[in-house]
Design brief:
Layout (H helix, E strand, L loop, with lengths): L11 E4 L5 H9 L14 H17 L4 E6 L5 E8 L8 E6 L8 H15 L5 E7 L3 H9 L3 E6 L14 E7 H8 L1
Antiparallel strand pairs: 1-2, 2-3, 3-4, 5-7, 6-7
Helix pairs in contact: 1-2
Length: 183
C-alpha cells in the first residue's frame, strides 16, 4: 500500500487517482481559488496532464506527492502536496481548498498533518512553502503551522497577476524547529 499522511479529525488523505482530474477542474474553477496562482484555471486536458505528471512524481519520489483531501464522509475538500522538486529532503508544501471550506482552519490542519508526515515518515530536513507576498491568508497558514519567513523574491511572469510586483515569499521550518515545536 502506498503511504499517505494519517487522517486528522476533519481530513482524510488519499493519493490522487487518474479520474481526479474532474475534481481538480471543479476546484480550480471555484471563484477565488486561482486568485494568486493564474489568470485562468488549466483546461480539462491540462488538468488530466497535471494529474498524470503528479502520479509520475509520486512514483519517482515515494512518500512525497499530492494527496486528495476528503471529509470523513468522503466529500472532496481539495488537495495538499509535498513536492520533491529537485530536493526531496526539503519538500515544498502546497494546498488548495474549495472556497466554501476557507476560514475553517482546514488549510492549517491539513498543512500541519503534511509537515508532521514529512518529518516523521519521509525524513525531511526541512519543509518550505511559498506564495505571493500579498496572499495574507496563505502566509497566516504558514505561520500558524510553524513555518518562518525566510525571504522575498521576484518571479518573472509573462502576464503577471495583480500583486506580483510585491514579489513572492518563502517560508520554512527545519527538523530541529519541528522537533522543538512537537515536544
Amino acid at each position: 500500500m502506498v503511504e499517505v499522511p494519517p487522517p486528522t479529525p476533519r481530513i482524510v488523505f488519499r493519493r490522487l487517482r487518474p479520474g481526479d482530474a474532474d475534481l481538480l477542474d471543479t476546484l480550480d474553477r471555484d471563484e477565488g481559488v486561482m486568485q494568486f496562482l493564474d489568470w485562468e484555471p488549466p483546461s480539462r486536458a491540462g488538468q488530466r496532464a497535471i494529474v498524470t505528471e503528479r502520479l509520475r512524481q509520486d512514483e519517482r519520489w515515494p512518500g512525497h506527492g499530492c494527496f486528495a483531501a476528503e471529509s470523513p464522509a468522503g466529500e472532496f475538500l481539495g488537495w495538499f502536496a509535498l513536492t520533491a522538486r529537485d530536493r526531496p529532503q526539503v519538500p515544498d508544501l502546497g494546498y488548495r481548498l474549495h472556497r466554501r471550506f476557507w476560514g475553517q482552519g482546514l488549510a492549517t490542519e491539513g498543512s500541519r498533518a503534511l509537515i508532521d508526515y514529512a518529518f516523521g515518515s519521509i525524513g525531511a530536513d526541512a519543509v518550505e512553502a511559498d506564495t505571493m507576498a500579498v496572499n495574507q491568508a496563505s502566509r497566516r497558514v504558514m505561520t500558524n503551522c510553524g513555518l518562518s519567513y525566510v525571504r522575498t523574491f521576484e518571479v518573472d511572469f509573462d502576464d503577471p497577476l495583480p500583486g506580483t510586483e510585491h514579489g513572492d515569499v518563502l517560508y520554512r521550518i527545519t527538523r530541529p524547529e519541528w522537533l522543538a515545536r512537537a515536544h
